[in-house]
Write a structure and sequence with these properties.
heterodimer; A: about 230 residues; B: about 130 residues; mainly alpha; 7 helices; about 60% helix
Amino acid sequence: MAFSPSRLLNDTVGFILHSSLLTPYFSWKSTHRRHHIYANNLAKDHNYVPPQRSEYARSLLFDVHRLEELTEDSPVVTFLRIITQQVFGFPWYLATNITASSGSLNRPKSTKLLGNSHFLPSSSLFRPEEAHLVLLSDLGLGLAALALWYASTRIGFSTVALLYLQPYTWVNHWIVAITYLHHTHPRLPKFEPEAWTFLKGAMATVDRDFGWIGKYLFHNIIEFHVIHHLFS
Amino acid sequence: MSSTATPLDYTSHPGDLVTPGVSLPFSLVNLDAHTHAEQEVNSTIKIQDLRDAIPARCFKPSYLLSLWYLFRDLMLAATVMTAAFIYIPHIKIPLARCIAWAMYGYFEGLIMTGIWVCQSASRTELIKQY
């Protein structure tokens, strides 16, 4: 029910391509699977779980009643936040599981460096049975990094940076932009666990139109997110 | 809690792996002003009903089609990257070279994102809907 009917082919192709784009394949596959199971469940979802108003206000050290007045018209702040989110968002998510709920963790939340990341087998995200998958994903990343390092010794670091790191940053931006906009809309609900069902969670994602880029370069993922959640 | 003792099940449909959180009748929990009809629909439509409404052919992935898209994207990415590698360093004017690199970055980023998407995230329905 995916790229091809063969699970082995899917995993092989996925492993090679994701690793070459510096994404840990099996680790991401595991958490993404769980995101699909618990989509839009405030207690369990992995991605874009918003803080409650009072939590958010507290994190900014404001009184919650003043939150609206203090944040409603700050285009510069919003702009800086967007840039930060787009440039660093995906690696940040892989490294610290940011925007995930606490119910997404399998072990108690860790305070160690990368303790909640997609990279360590001991991470709070994974169960012990998945350790070998995480290591395999890391191997993939390591090989990709090695290839990049080798390329930079042959053609120079700045060329590799221009040829690869630049589009790579764009890829991170698109991943965050696409998934963020798929799961966030002022009129869409996120559900408390008591009110959540799989169907309601899946229906609370949003399809958007992205013109010919969406159709021909992005393989229509933007236009079909609800179906993506409903049927896989 | 997500499955703790057994390995993650990658073949069952996610909707079959979890039960709804609600233990009260639907209408008591849903406090927004939905119409009664909507509530009826929401509580009686199952995923299988939605799935049955879609032609079966849309759920069958095609090796050929998927591999073709992958091949196409990889060729595109490789071509653009090689072209940039060979030609852009020869542009004399620094500003034009800068702009060329930026444009390359943008387009290669789009193609690479397509490749990223081409993974198991690329579902049949998406390909078939072309």
